[in-house]
Design brief:
alpha+beta; two-stranded antiparallel ribbon; Pept_asp_AS; cysteine-type peptidase activity; hydrolase; Cathepsin K
Length: 325
Amino acid sequence: MIRYILLSSFITLSFALPYPELNSAWRTYKKVYGKSYNPLEEASRRIIWENNVIRVLKHNLEADLNLHSFKMEINHLTDKVPQEYFMMNGLKRTNRTNSYTYFSAPSDAEFPAEKDWRKEGLVTEVKNQENCGSCWAFSTTGSLEGQQKKKSGKLISLSEQNLIDCSDHNNGCNGGAIDDAFDYIKLHGIDTEESYPYLAMRQDRCFFDKENIGATLTGYVDIPPGNEKELFKAVATVGPVSVGINADGYGFMQYGSGIYEVDGCDPHELDHGVLIVGYGSENGKDYWIVKNSWGPSWGEDGYIRMARNKNNMCGIASMASYPLI
């Protein structure tokens, strides 16, 4: 009860923003995350930050009382309003009438209770899409990097910028579809990250160079929409799988740790491309291990554990696919 009285007092005082006792914390936040603002912007960013800090504190107090399954934390997005955050969620559905190939697990396949493809070297470091709606490109490269490693034994980081600049059926930082990106790679291949580095913006031209191709593919396989059982089998046997999710759910932007399970996260409103790299269970709660593209300072070192077998939480099984090479 005392903790809630203190929190209520803090919230009341915060309406006289900026709250002076947070001056030191604000300076530290800017230093840690390399933030700088012009004088006109600083005051508004401070207010946004303080309001988000209050939400984080309130949520974590409730989580301590077992009212939530995950904790929030202050991160590099804490000074942003939802509209800015939503701009990073650039996943689109393909408008093309492709002939889909749906996943079917081998009859003799084994499905372990836990799986983490990071431990088998199929996952590159966590990347950062920055202020660009290019999540679809990061999800695409992630699953292809895994399949390339399985086939060649070499883990090669692939170029998201290549897809942003050159995938004509997608719209660069304004969004794109994972399967359309697979179609582009099928036709052309994709350059390595080293040869075609990320700039977090759409360039005026495509700089793809076939001499720098890091991977190719022959096609791709879609998981039957909404089928978590088939998605589980694919992740267990194939490797990392590209998926779309609804990232507008409560607390996603400030996710810190734990198993993300929330109410009202519409499984049909997909807006963010991510990568499932495994699955497991903790204290009787099943989860997916999901790699995000918001840098390693977000979540659990750049990852989030999302509830599994919870009615397709946030649409995680609604649009899933992986490449064939």
